[in-house]
């Protein structure tokens, strides 16, 4: 059933598409990390209307499917505004917004774990609010949550095939297109699955190593 000559023939094209998958994963995760941080900080804003609006946006994003959000950004947004984005840019923004809403809760847990005395010490030293966040709070809040953020990186990798719905040619769509032409589904889908598995395992191993180092750091 397995044809090695055919598998080697389609492998280069699948690898090129997998590079798109990796790029979308990393940029989407970077966007999610930045957006999630913004949501987390706004969630602690002094003005109640800002906090409530932020909470409403986060809950709306968390309560709607990623696919619906992607369709809106790619198909509906250009009809409502002059903004028209490429499939890749739309995918990155969609992943960033969707998982940024989830990461905001992860950031919140890390920020809440910072001892109250640290905030009071920064206030006693007359540090500005920006300096307090950058120099005191975030350096203590972020390291403990890095393993959880790493898990979301793997989740984003597994969600990248969803971007094929907005015509982004990633590895799974490439495998599907290849199979539709040659009518051989075993090799391209198997290779795509192995590529996802290999990268997921590599990411999981890297996250585990980071977690071990963080445990040694905080228990030393």
From TrEMBL:
<feature type="domain" description="ABC transmembrane type-1">
    <location>
        <begin position="18"/>
        <end position="207"/>
    </location>
</feature>
<dbReference type="InterPro" id="IPR014341">
    <property type="entry name" value="Ectoine_EhuD"/>
</dbReference>
<dbReference type="InterPro" id="IPR010065">
    <property type="entry name" value="AA_ABC_transptr_permease_3TM"/>
</dbReference>
<keyword id="KW-1133">Transmembrane helix</keyword>
<keyword id="KW-0029">Amino-acid transport</keyword>
<feature type="transmembrane region" description="Helical">
    <location>
        <begin position="189"/>
        <end position="208"/>
    </location>
</feature>
<feature type="transmembrane region" description="Helical">
    <location>
        <begin position="20"/>
        <end position="45"/>
    </location>
</feature>
<keyword id="KW-0472">Membrane</keyword>
<keyword id="KW-0812">Transmembrane</keyword>
<dbReference type="InterPro" id="IPR035906">
    <property type="entry name" value="MetI-like_sf"/>
</dbReference>
<keyword id="KW-0813">Transport</keyword>
<protein>
    <submittedName>
        <fullName>Ectoine/hydroxyectoine ABC transporter permease subunit EhuD</fullName>
    </submittedName>
</protein>
<keyword id="KW-1003">Cell membrane</keyword>
<dbReference type="InterPro" id="IPR043429">
    <property type="entry name" value="ArtM/GltK/GlnP/TcyL/YhdX-like"/>
</dbReference>
<dbReference type="Pfam" id="PF00528">
    <property type="entry name" value="BPD_transp_1"/>
</dbReference>
<dbReference type="InterPro" id="IPR000515">
    <property type="entry name" value="MetI-like"/>
</dbReference>
<comment type="similarity">
    <text>Belongs to the binding-protein-dependent transport system permease family.</text>
</comment>
